[in-house]
Amino acid sequence: MTVSHWRRSFRRSTPLDVGVCVIGAGICGVSAALAAQRRGESVVILERHTLAAGASSRNAGFLMRGAACHYAEAVDLYGRTQACDLWRFTEANLEGLRREGCEALASYRRVPSMLLALRGSGTGLRPVWSPSDEYASSNRAGLERSVTLMREDGLDAEWIDAGSKHPDDAAWRSGLVSCALVNPHDASLNSFELMSMLASKLTTHATLAAKLPSPLIENQEVFGIEPQARGFLVRTADFAVHAQHVLVCTNAYASLLLPGFDDLVKPRRGQMLALAPQGRTLAASYYCNDGSEYFRQAADGTIVVGGCRTYFADEEVGFEDRTTSSVQAALESFARAMLGYGEGSLPITARWAGTMGFSPDGLPLIGPSGAASSPWFCGGFTGHGMSMGYQAAHEAVDAMLEGRAPMFSIARVKR
Ligand SMILES: Cc1cc2nc3c(=O)[nH]c(=O)nc-3n(C[C@H](O)[C@H](O)[C@H](O)COP(=O)(O)OP(=O)(O)OC[C@H]3O[C@@H](n4cnc5c(N)ncnc54)[C@H](O)[C@@H]3O)c2cc1C
Fold first, then answer.
1. From ligand 1's centre to the CA of 101, what distance in Å?
2. Which of 27, 200, 328, 358 is deepest in the core (most CB within 10 A)?
3. Which domains are delineated in the chain?
């Protein structure tokens, strides 16, 4: 949003004085506010819409170990130590959410995730999501290498071949699966239920209680962060927040607020649909074609299917919140084949889109957004923020308040 001179100069905003001002109320922002609150800081979260209005209530709800790529690819990209640290980081993310009580949520399922390699589709016409023989065999080889490396690095992983004993569910009965790498300890849930639970733990600091019923201030878009002699002045239409520390947790929308972030966090659209199960069951949360497609079953039986953005990559960029007929048709074709829905009309109950923030190297970005004294940023989760955001937010808050360098420092990619 751009902000006119008139709006900026007509000041009737309520002043607030806080230790930490968090911008954005997704998984990252709410987790950061909880972390700061537990360190005794006075905290507010400024959110331009409402709780979890961004990707944090629009995702598939996988709490999956790992990142966008499989483990062997992560080893090639980041080196063995950092790949292992990243996988452990996502395990810690899930542990942290369990400590918060996510296992008690009605939507929570302790269910393994499976990274599937699909069978190649031979020559001739094939749907966009159906792998070529060449891709299928390299995908399988990558997963095989991953399971070996993971076991060597002490990360629990199982292997299932389509020819051996496998779950008897809709995905495996499709005949499309070649093999699976299994993350046995993963989980899934309704991400909005998780966000509501986390937000319910926010408490108003005693110094703010007279002015605010809750530290989460909704419908307040931040349009300016001005450096002050001590800290920052954060401006919205109705508030002027003096904060010692500012943590920007707007993920995909970072470049709208932070100079120089166009190249650091790219907005990428992801689309999904939900289907009535009509008797189908799924034994795992499934992630296939290197994460290009993913599907799982919710606690109430609903099946959600997402992905297919990579085949329309030029269209699936930017901030626009809408579904498109090309991606939705690809998702429908995938659901029919993979889940055995056949040719009749699909029992689709919802279609939606969300915007993810992709970092240059697929790793989270944490640290000062510019010079050392600038507001901090935490985000760039590259489609895996539910599996990283809670832990990343804690790392960001700890490092910011302790004045130390964070893990996944932005400095590695900043020009
Ligand atoms: C379709 C889809 C499926 C996904 N599936 C999964 C999955 O299964 N597992 C997984 O781990 N990840 C998944 N992800 C990714 C995950 O949802 C995100 O990485 C995660 O939600 C990012 O959280 P966040 O808090 O950083 O950002 P967001 O949840 O996007 O929150 C940012 C917030 O900042 C607010 N904001 C923006 N600008 C301003 C401003 N100027 N002032 C105030 N507020 C502002 C926004 O309104 C928003 O609420 C998926 C994403 C999509 C789109």
1. 21
2. 27
3. 5-58+193-264+361-412 (3.50.50.60), 62-189+266-358 (3.30.9.10)
